[in-house]
Amino acid sequence: MQKSLLALTLGYCALIIPAGAQQIALSEQIWSGDVIRAEGQPLVPLFDGWFTNPDGTHSLCFSYFNMNTEESFDIPVGELNMLLDERFADALIPTHFDPLPPAYRHVFCAFTVDVPADFGVDDRIVWRLTSNGQTLEVPGKIIPPYVMDEPASGGRGEIAPLVALEEDGEAVRGRRGIHREVQANVGEPLTLGAWIEHEEPEVWVGWAQHSGPGNITFDRKEYEFDPGSGPATVAASFSAPGVYVIRMQTIESTASFEFYCCHTNAFFHVTVGD
Question: Whole-prediction pTM value?
């Protein structure tokens, strides 16, 4: 399921023009790598696709494209960062957005929204983001062209890594992910680990701040990892107390992101004390 930047930007999101402003159709704008800047550009919310779960429900995958190579954003859930459907208010919407990743460009399936089995092809869930003065929104939908292979692709012969967040603990594959709650303190690095199994001798692992009231620094954010060498680890430090979410993603290689299969998400819910 390969998509170009043009399709991602024009096909999946709508620009909300302030009242009184002259509207220029997105189809008349030129979108290319030239629109990427160090700062000053908006975040683009994206809809990656959807898949059906074993219980008959469906999961919709949302991601984002930061058009800035240096500027990050912290946008709390609310007027500037929201799903336009109160039924899904508990979705794990990201509130921290890292700058543009140079290798794989956009952050794939940063969060999923589970919808009931009777969610129809005419139903929509819209994610709206406002950044640098521009409001963009994207509709999530379960129409056939956007169905995703999950957690394996028979055509490409790939499978998402199996991930556990405790040694010999529950393990899952896929983008809905696995969750763990942990405790930490400001000024004391927290070591997190993920036990990964995969048929390939090496996988990619990436760690990112998903949400939280302060900043998280990592001793290393992305690396190639041998699943047979023990847990993949990271040391995270927090600038302020509060509740944070750290998102870990793992896939055979970042090149596989281009085909929208097959990666696993893991979410660490961290309560940080003084």
Answer: 0.89
CA distance 104 to 258: 8
CB 82 within 8 A of CB 141: no
Residue 87: Cβ-neighbour burial (10 angstroms; 0-12, 13-18, 19+): exposed
- Whether residue 66 contacts residue 72, with contact meaning beta carbons closer than 8 Å, is answered with yes
Average confidence score pLDDT of the chain: 90
Instruction: Kindly list the structural domains of the chain, giving each domain's residue range(s) and its CATH number in brackets, ordered by start.
Output: 5-146 (no CATH), 152-273 (2.60.40.10)
Among candidate residues 112, 61, 109, 102, the one with its CA nearest the CA of residue 221? 102
CA of residue 77 relative to chain centroid, distance: 15
Q: What is the pLDDT of residue 35?
A: 82
Contact 80, 129 (CB under 8 A): yes
Structure tokens at 122: 């005419």
Give pLDDT tens digits for 13-69.
554 434 433 333 345 556 566 788 999 999 999 999 999 999 999 999 999 999 999
Q: How many CA atoms lie within 13 A of 233 on its CB side?
A: 8
What distance in Å separates the CA atoms of residue 23 and residue 21, rounded to the nearest whole number? 6
Contact assessment for residue 195 and residue 163, using Cβ atoms and an 8 Å cutoff: yes
Quote the tokens at residue 272.
Answer: 């940080």
